[in-house]
């Protein structure tokens, strides 16, 4: 087996939207990993990246100069008491699965969110999905909820679970800093 090519992780820009969308679209079209029915347009996806970046990280992993995956954080819930919690997601090109791309992205994302002052991270997983469950649990996430039949896709009701990562005590009650400040 040949050694894996080095993975470069950096903050995304709106110019990364097309490459990220190319990774995301098959998850929408072919799986229940995403509950969207149709992939967003390139402009819609670019707007998503732009909406996240001022407040929270959106990271891209590159291998051999090509986008291999991305991870980002969004607002978990709108009420002010939730401001120390972020929802996280990661998508990796299937050709790059099990090569450290997802782990590298999530590790970098977790480090940035901790540095910004977040206390808790939440990951939603469509169930069943043993690969994603194992991945999240290997990174320290623990299962906290299972919602049966909350989404309908591909002619069947789909379950969702939530996994939580406790970033630990020490978060001051000051609001988390915006990603743009980091």
Task: Explain this structure.
The chain is α+β, with helices and mostly antiparallel strands and about 180 residues long. It has one domain (about 5-180): Gcn5-related N-acetyltransferase (GNAT) (Aminopeptidase, 3-Layer(aba) Sandwich). About 25% of the residues lie in helices and about 35% in strands. The protein contains 4 helices and 7 strands; from the N terminus they run βααβββαβαββ. It has a 7-stranded mixed beta sheet, with helices on both faces. The longest helix is centred in the middle third of the chain and has 16 residues, at about 100-115. It is globular, with a radius of gyration of 16 Å. The model has no long low-confidence stretch (mean pLDDT about 95).
Give start-end ranges of low-pLDDT stretches.
none
Main-sheet strand order equals 1-2-3-4-5-7-6
Mean pLDDT: 93
Please identify, by name, the CATH architecture.
3-Layer(aba) Sandwich
Q: In brief, what are we looking at here?
A:
The chain has a single domain (7-181), classed as Aminopeptidase. It contains 4 helices and 7 strands.
């Amino acid at each position: 087996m040949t050694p894996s090519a080095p993975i470069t992780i950096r903050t995304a820009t709106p110019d990364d939207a097309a490459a990220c969308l190319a990774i995301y679209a098959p998850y929408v079209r072919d799986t229940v990993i995403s509950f969207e029915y149709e992939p967003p347009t390139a402009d819609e996806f670019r707007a998503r990246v732009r909406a996240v970046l001022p407040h929270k990280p959106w990271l891209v992993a590159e291998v051999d100069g090509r986008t291999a995956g991305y991870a980002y954080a969004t607002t978990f819930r709108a009420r002010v008491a939730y401001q120390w919690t972020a929802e996280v997601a990661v998508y990796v090109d299937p050709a790059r699965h099990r090569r450290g791309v997802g782990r590298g992205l999530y590790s970098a994302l977790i480090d940035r969110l901790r540095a910004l002052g977040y206390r808790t991270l939440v990951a939603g997983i469509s169930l069943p999905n043993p690969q994603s469950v194992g991945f999240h649990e290997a990174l320290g996430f623990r299962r906290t909820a299972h919602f049966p039949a909350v989404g309908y896709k591909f002619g069947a009701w789909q379950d969702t679970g939530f996994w939580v990562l406790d970033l630990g005590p020490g978060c001051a009650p000051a609001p988390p800093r915006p990603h743009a400040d980091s």
